[in-house]
Every structure is written in structure tokens, then in C-alpha cells.
Amino acid sequence: MKAAFLIKPSKVFDKPLVIKNVKNKDLANDEVRIRVKSCGICKLDLELIEGKREREISEKFPIIPGHEVIGIIDEIGKNVHELNEGDRVALGLIYDSCNSCDACQENRFELCEELKVTGVHADGGLAEYVIAKANKLIKLPSWISDDDNHALCELAFAMKAIGYIERPFENKIAVVGEDLISKFVSEILRSRNIEVKVFVKKNSNGENQDYKSIEKGRFDIAIVTYDIPEIIENVMSRLKKGGTLIYFSQAVIKLPNFFENKKLISIGIPSYRDVRKAIEELRYTKIKDLEKMVFDIENVNEALMKMKQKSHVKFLMLNKA
Ligand SMILES: [Zn+2]
Ligand SMILES: [Zn+2]
Questions:
Q1: What is the Å distance from ligand 2's center to 98 Cα?
Q2: Ligand 1 mean position to 51 CA, how many Å?
Q3: CB atoms closer than 10 angstroms to residue 123
């Protein structure tokens, strides 16, 4: 099979992915082989490829990146009973976990100390086939199409952020960001008649205000999707005392002031519940119409380069077969 290997993290302009033709590996008893229909590339992949997430990067190189996989099961291991050949499934960030700790027992695999992330600790989906653990896959309903990868990934993050909002009708909520996740969060909250105000880094289109205009002590909850420590810290300082800030960055952030009793929540990886909620949400919403560019595996480096230049466009690798 053809696959895109990251030999070692390096700048996208150096064409870091190498296409190789490799033999299909044998399956373990708890694994399945997925014929990849499509694999999305998101900002997280770019950061991993360029080595910007040192704290999360394993020693496993070369590695096949890609955690937004939709495909068809091609072969199943001996002990796999809940999935069959021909099932259409999604493989996301959660690749494997210990399956025995308290978190795993409650299906909160994302909190397992032994969590393995797809495309980081194990080969991901920028390939014709990917091997996955059967108990980490989600069977997809018909309303999810083969190219809904990004919507699913970003919406799962949005659902996770929304899940942290306690008393949504009483608390004042600010969303600070202009990416897809922040759009999903504000659209979904508004569709539930929950008031939310959106702020951006720099007010350029006159639509949303600059985050520096956030009145001190006005908001109870802020969801910040910018990966810029200054913005996160600034918004934190403007939150109401006792307020909660949910952030998506991996940057080192100054802790809130002792007297202000504020909570800082790093978003982490969406749970299976969040992904299921995202799938349900996609049944009725139109928010899945993203601007996408499709490429084949041979042109994966070109896609990365374009993505670097035009970050609002989402990239998708489609396998023809
Ligand atoms: Zn993603
Ligand atoms: Zn565990």
C-alpha cells in the first residue's frame, strides 16, 4: 500500500512527507484493517509535522500522520465481534488505551494515562490502509459523508468545549477566535437560544469586536481558540472573578491570580461522547459545508504547503479505489 511517512518533524516547505509503497502488516486479534476513503489534515497535523508539539510527540519515526480518517473495514482480527467487513467507520485521535484503568472502564479513553494518539504514537490515515483497534472506532450513520472528516473533528472539539459550560442560560459567555471550532461553538449555542458574544484578534470586517474591548468582569465563561498565550492571558484577566476559561493552546500560560478564583481548562482530546454528539449535530446542521481542497496521496506535501498559506481551507486526501 501507498503511505505518506514523516521521517522526522520538519518545516512544511522542506516537503517532510515521503510517499512509500509498503507491505500490509498482519492484524492483531483486536484490530481491523480500514481501507481509507478519505483523511483530513487539520492544524494539529501541521503542528505535529513541523514538531511544534514536542510534549506530545513520541519517539516513533517514521510515522504516518493523519487522525481524521473515514473508511471501510476490509479485514477483521480474530477477536473482533462488534464490527464487520464492509462497515463504514471513523478513526479519530484516540488510537489505543490501556482498556483497564478507571477512565477506560468509563469509556473516557482520552483520559487514560497510556493513551496513544493516531498519527502521533501510531500510524494514521494518510495512506491507502490503516490498522486500528476495533474498540476505538465509531460506526458512521448514512448522513455522514466520506468527506465530513474535518467537520467531525472540529465539531467534536466544539462539543467538548460546550460540555464545560455550566448554567448556560445564566452565565455570560464569550467566544474568542475566528477558526471553525469557534464558529461551531457560537452557532450551536445560538441555535439553542444561548447568548454568546464573539471576539476576534483584530476587528477587520467590523463584525466582531477586538478581544481587548472585553469589559473587565463582564463574562463568566470564555472559550479561546487562538493559540496565542498573550490573548489567552489577556482574556483571563478580563473574566469575572470565579469565571472559567477554556483554551485550545499548548503554549505555557501564566496561572490566574490567586485572589480571583478563576478556572483554566485545557480542552484536551474529545471523548467518544463528544464525537457522538458531533455526529448527531451533523444530522441537522448545515455547518458541514466547509471550503475543502481535495488531493491524492502523491501530492500530500503540496497540500501541506497550500494549507500553510491558506489556513482557512481544509484539506482532504481521497483514495480513488
Ligand atoms: Zn483534526
Ligand atoms: Zn486506561
A1: 4
A2: 16
A3: 23
* All structural domains of the chain: 2-148+288-318 (3.90.180.10), 155-266 (3.40.50.720)
Q: What is each CA distance from 66 to 56, 110, 304, in whole angstroms?
A: 15, 17, 12
Name the residue among 300, 294, 312, 289 with its Cα closest to residue 19. 300
pLDDT in tens, 212-250: 999 999 999 999 999 899 999 999 999 999 999 999 987
Average pLDDT on 19-43 reads 94
Contacts for 267 with CB less than 8 Å, ≥ 6 apart: 157, 160, 161, 246, 247, 248
Q: Which ligand is nearest to the CA of 67?
A: 1
Strands 129-133 and 196-200: unpaired
Query: What distances in angstroms separate CA 127 from CA 73, 205, 206, one per listed residue?
Result: 14, 40, 43
pTM: 0.92
CA of 67 to the centre of ligand 1 (A): 6
Report how far ligand 2's centroid is from the alpha carbon of 102 (Å): 7
Grouping H, G, I as helix, E, B as strand and the rest as coil, residue 103 is helix
- Grid cell digits, residue 268: 484536551
